[in-house]
């Protein structure tokens, strides 16, 4: 059973925390969206464990925080809680280039690791727009995804070893530097994606991948999602290079974004049902470009109405990719527009998007979604053409359209953004009861007092 | 707390089990190495759940069994237990070629799935010698590895979705067909590698990979493990094709096996410290062979004493790979020879093997190990030149040499074979106490009566 909420003696708590992390690292100000009593900044796993031990003894709950770039309210805090930030644990402890492995502390920002790895011709195999601020610990705790998941998996698949602090202050240490390890339960996977509700990730061992020396990009205008998936299949089977990214942009998205960025027809036709940005990576630029041309040619053979632009320079390549990355344009047109993040099995994508477009058109005078995302792994982002937030009734109606079909074919209503507070209620009502039961048993086992990020993921 | 051992009424139990799975599927004979009272063969997840529910109610413990190819005694059973075999759940329920995904029941043998996927030009991305008998459920439960783990990960990384039966009979269902899913704790990872001690895996969704149309193989004779890792690095960065397998065979292994297979010097020099079998996969045979020649050439530039054979035909390629697969030769020379299965970070391999060779040479008149394994992922198999079993003292001395260095640099004393009964004691003494504590908490939460495969992994 959870303990009754405690009313800690704030002065005594501050004193105790200062004694283990140093007074300058216990601060009042924790930002406008935090209501916690303190921000605590431990500098080592031992200090994290000491803080957790004190809070456990006093019944004070902890909100762990990385780069604070999450989208589901996983770091919201309340009076009576402390925020534990990992940002002082920001060392890259080692890079083993021959192993393609890095050992990093949780507070390292993704971009810092990307730059350090690049010095060895390597990369973390994961990339996302918040790279400058998102921390490795936060990305592990939320099982971050991004544009290379079709090839390198999600954050869960990048982690070889982990050190974490359990809710009672015990240090869990399993810093293996190898991919094969069957020595007992591999419990690091409990902490990946648990959003800090089962413990605090402090250090990890990550796999790295070779960075391709060259890349080549085509943007294809195509008649259907099926045609886009065919092109992706061709790229996956290319003799030369490998598929690096495959992003789908449905017509409403590409029209709004390309126009906002000043692209002009007819040099760039905006009337195709879907655009596919396809990037190959490899060694030889000319070979890659030839492979991209072959994919374009084969696509034209099958779909004579297809259009395409092959990037002729790095600058043109960057321009094409800016169409995908510049999602801000949606929110400028529709401030606070509600956004959704679903996973759809590839062969269901076409029918699913049709269902969503038709279903939303029937709601409240007609909603038209912007759909875009990681086509090679089935992760679609859906943003409504409405200023947010929606009323509760409208929100439920939209969720029903978007989420209801997913379970039948094995999709997910939260692909890469997590649950936090934003999707907790839907998780509780729409998840298999056996899975909910197992989640509750695990939470109860590791955090019976419910002190680790309470009110997130699980009620 | 665990219940006291029960003394079930065998007749009543048999009757109850027959009622849920059908009388023909409750059998006495369970094989010479089983002492359990019954073998029960459920045909569906619902039947597995019914069997588990009955056993849970009566306090009867269950030993789950797949293809029974494990090497650590994970399927040993005792009087008062039942063996629950998944072999009747042997349907490939669906293959989605465009998604590169298969939905399979736990009792499907790996080779059956390989053949079914091959019809679509796909493969499960995992392969091992017991493919004809090992089942997918067993491979998931033991987190199987094999020769492609450097590229496609281990079994854990192949599983997208899972259905399992918890120790109380609850069905856990999370059959997602997507790689990105952050909707709650991803508890399928609890069942992967738990060797049936936390529940019974009944169905899984697996990722598939395109099968390369062509392959090319070189066997390099090299002066050191470091030279072998350099060649692997070249292969990983090859512009053409991709590294499919990289197996290292140290001199004692290659000498014994090649001679037993009738290879003759000087056509095939056997005096190099290490041989590396390197296979590229890709589309165009001529391009692949050229890439392999380039790797050989670059290796010769750096190591003028290197030797090499490039397979000139599929038959020659098969002959080369038979050197790696024919591990039976070791056991013919040394019946019952003790074997070990460790993971070593790549940059530690050279020094580790030196340590092992020197350390074993000092034991009991000198032991000389045969070392071979998956060089690209650091998984070494070590077989002693002694008939087994060893005395307990000798066994401890060998383990001390082999296992002691592993933890300091993040290796593993059980890479891909699991813990079972064989390595349970070492796990208990050599594992981080925080990890052991977390394991115990999870076991207690899911299986408080200790009815699921008791006496394996955890005491």
From TrEMBL, chains A, B:
A biological process from GO: respiratory electron transport chain
Record InterPro entries: FAD-bd_oxidored_4_C (IPR004113), FAD-bd_PCMH (IPR016166), FAD-bd_PCMH-like_sf (IPR036318), FAD-bd_PCMH_sub1 (IPR016167), FAD-bd_PCMH_sub2 (IPR016169), FAD-linked_Oxase-like_C (IPR016164), FAD-oxidored/transferase_4 (IPR051264), Oxid_FAD_bind_N (IPR006094)
Oxidoreductase is among the record's keywords: yes
UniProt entry keywords in alphabetical sequence: FAD, Flavoprotein, Oxidoreductase, Plasmid
GO molecular function annotations of the record: FAD binding; oxidoreductase activity
Residues annotated as domain FAD-binding PCMH-type: 32-211
Xref: Pfam families: FAD-oxidase_C, FAD_binding_4
Necessary cofactors: FAD
Oxidoreductase listed as a keyword: yes
Protein family per UniProt: Belongs to the FAD-binding oxidoreductase/transferase type 4 family.
UniProt xrefs under PANTHER family: D-2-HYDROXYGLUTARATE DEHYDROGENASE, MITOCHONDRIAL
Protein name according to UniProt: FAD-binding oxidoreductase
Organism: Gemmobacter fulvus
